[in-house]
Amino acid sequence: MSTNNSLNRRKFIKVSALTGGGMLLSFNLLTGCKPSVSEAAELPKEWFQFNGYLKIGDNGLITLMSPNPEIGQNVKTSMPMMVAEELDVNWKKVIVEQAPLNTDLYKPMQLAGGSNSISASWQTMRTAGATAREMLKQAAANEWKVPVSEIETIDGKLIHKASGKSADYGEFASAASKLTVPEKVALKKPKDFKIIGTSRKNVDGQKIATGKPLFGLDYKEEGMLIAMIVHPPAFGLQLKESDVSAIKSMPGIADAFFIDVYPDSKNKQWCDVAAFTKLLAVVGKSTWQVMQAKKTFKPETEPIKASSEKVNVFGTVTEVITPAGFENTTTHKQQMASISPKQVKTVRKDGDPEAAFKKASVIIERSYSCPFLAHNAMEPMNFFANVKDGQATLVGPVQTPSFMEKSVSDRLGIPLDKVEVKMTRMGGGFGRRLYGHFLVEAALISQKMKAPVKLIYTREDDMTNGVYRPAYYATYRAALDENKNLIAFHVKAGGIPENALMANRYPAGAVENYLAEEWAIPTNISVGAFRAPGSNFIAGAEQSFLDEVAEAMGKDPIEMRLELFEKAKSNPVGKNNDYNADRYAGVLKLVKEKSEWSKTQPGISRGVAAYFCHDSYVAHVFDISIKNNKPVIEKVTTAVDCGIVVNPDAATNLSEGAVTDAVGHAMFSGMTFTNGVPDQSNFDKYRMIRNSEAPKKIETHFVKNEIDPTGMGEPSGPPAIGALANALYKATGKRYYVQPFMIENQPIHS
Amino acid sequence: MATYNLKINGKMHETDADPSTPLLWVLREHLDMVGTKFGCGLAQCGACTVHLDDVATRSCVLPVSQVGNHEITTIEGLSEKGDHPVQKAWVEHDVAQCGYCQAGQIMTAAAFLKKNPNPSDEDIAAAMDGNICRCGTYLRIRAAVKSAAKS
Q1: What ipTM was estimated for this complex?
Q2: By CB distance 3.0 to 4.6 Å, which of A69, A377, A661, B104 could disulfide with B46?
Q3: Is residue A73 over pLDDT 70?
Q4: Domains detected in chain B
């Protein structure tokens, strides 16, 4: 396979002009960010830069830059593996560093979101490795006076078999780095991969296990102050400026003042979501002193007015409506269950669904719902900022550094090239850190204090600050004819303030008469993307419903789905079906085989589900038992088709985590509101899944193919909820429509 | 403000702090030992777990004034070379995803195995129930504790 070098000459220009200074800086950015290679390895006397992704030392040691933010999805290991593969080096000689933010250099985007880090950089990163490999070969060919085509590379060595000559990369690093960058390089065929497809341990694993400073909250600079914020106690309220002199006189407090985070929404980006834009900032010497001072503040508030603002979502300006008033979860539930036809919009229609439902022998109609969720990344929101002399330096955990750089520049009126965002490892994100209002807050506070500050949210600040997973609702209807054939399918999906409809996904394309509709109810509770947005609800609803439909049809749930895929493949209905029926059916067949679906075991109830999102296909079989009136997930069998798996054990870890995460939220979690006030503000009331409630065993199987990699961080979660609900039904005889499924202290059979 | 002499990881440290300051913030901000993490401030998530003598303790709710002569061990001092059996097992099982909760998980596991060197699977899950992992690495945590117990 050969490919046009997608990185043009300008982007591959030598480092001196590009990242020289930044590279050195980032190398020692944090005390914990020392090379990941064994500490005993000897560092080279000189490094030679080939492109933004790699440099080679005179002793053959390799430094690879990991461009994207590390949020726990393991890109800091998996992305450099793609460079190392094409460079043909020994992974043990590789040091990985977090790359600086450089949007010109690192394409397509230095972002953690949408499960697309690997897929989006699949060509780019391999090309970076292959380019350097070709330059090394050329340098050796020049020196040895042999044709470059006769030179082979293996494990960081250049070999010319005919003459018996060989050399380490280090010997030619200097000469090679000065050569012209080739415009076109050949990439390896998947069958020749030596690193891609093999499991490599997290490059920061040892540092994590020994408590090294890696995270934003661990970052410190000389003279740094600690800042915290106070926001209104309820959605629908805003702070009024009031006297804060009492706070200022408390021990260790340097200042307290109000900040307007987004006073003007004209340049607001999609990632500038913030429920509360006027905040009190309290600044002092230590976190504990600031916490104590902030507790004494009795905020004066006033109700917000209804408003609408225009937000730039990837170039499209969208209007966001914020109603006034204090919202309640009980009212939300009533509103969602009583949507009038006037509020509903048709998104897709195939055939004549109305007529098909009229002539149906059996109509099944079910409604599903889920609550708002807080992301609850274990590292609370925080960011370091130092704004001085017309420059802003920000350090910390954010999934959207390139976007937030613009927001900081815009809000502070500092040119973009004077704003620098440095990425630390993130203590989780799950979508919460896509929305970086806390960078703007930290920068405003530092600007006012004329000092470096670290803004820290308490858990309560974090959990009651909004940007939640929306509350979703969906009603499904299926029509069966007198022979129990599925003749029509109808989904009507809504939510607060957005719905989770995926109109062109399965079973669209597999049913003759199909109708997809949507509705939404505005809210002043702010929402944002939450791991597998939309899919995190709609997959569970759809897959639970299909289980009921299969039962009504008198069919095995896997066979019923496979028949629909056959229909979607051989004679698809409609045009925009966005899934591949073969690959979809493939994971179901694999999970059927690996779970030994046809066998029954005493005391075990089984449920199955499959889903497609982030371009990947996942099917699960859940085996559960009931002990002491509680469900025990004895085993989960998972089949994944995400194309080529770059780092299988890391992908398995991600898939296991996504299953546990999804199961936990579906069973236990939810944010509820009384008169705009969040009823949960910490882990005493917000129920998270605990160790003993996680599946006892998860067996993960990957479909083996040579398709370019697709998403891995998110797709395993959504179908887990359907498989769980279907297994619970088999165990209890009860269908589970309302999340969270388990109400605390209530036996499952009640 | 008062002066406290704390024995941490085998060494004495002198620090001035308000008596109500939780040990967590004394470690992180007064003594620059940031391996112990802030997660909830309510002893609900376990990210801040340290050993007080041999007992796993939530440092986010333990005022520095109550530490007294008890010896404190943090993740930085669990082993000299980062090779405590639990740490080794964590690396071997590649447990971490984001990694933020793992220092607390490791401290809980190390204290637990000292008390119960031959735990059953149920014992392990129950012992680790106080530590939240938002990434959902619970299965690997259990597997790592189990192999650390065997070693």
Answers
A1: 0.99
A2: B104
A3: yes
A4: 2-77 (3.10.20.30), 85-150 (1.10.150.120)
